Amino acid sequence: MSDAQLFQYANTTALVSWIVLVVQPKRTAPTLRFVVPLAMAVLYIWALSTAPANPDGGFGSLAQVKALFTQDRAVLAGWVHYLAFDFFIGCWMVMDAAERGIKHLLVVPCMLLTFMFGPVGLLLYVGLRTAMSGRAVKTA
């Protein structure tokens, strides 16, 4: 199986998992938050361990990181890293919102932003969570 095919499978898995999480949050979040990121962790480890060595690559400078991502296998690993962590954060938001009594409909935009832009969605959710906790304190 080629790196391009694995990339497509990872993307499809992430997209379908996000859709299921948006549509069936309470039923799926506890299971999906482990299954999807752990499956992607396996792919990530495989991609990292089989990527060809790049003597110019590394994490010490922007130039080294750019050199790392000139190889398809390294890009696959990096992309799967994003997909796994963003999805894990999405599951956490769903479960945290349920515990705090935040309506799922308010969390959906945070989830969509997390899916597309990672930290932007997390920041929005933290703002929502803060705003809702202040509201709960005022009404209590």
UniProtKB/TrEMBL annotation:
Q: Which UniProt keywords apply?
A: Membrane, Transmembrane, Transmembrane helix
Give the transmembrane region(s).
6-23, 35-54, 74-94, 106-128
Q: Which Pfam families match?
A: ABA4-like (PF14108)
Q: Which InterPro entries match?
A: ABA4-like
Please report the name of this protein according to its UniProt entry: DUF4281 domain-containing protein
- Native source species: Gemmatimonas groenlandica
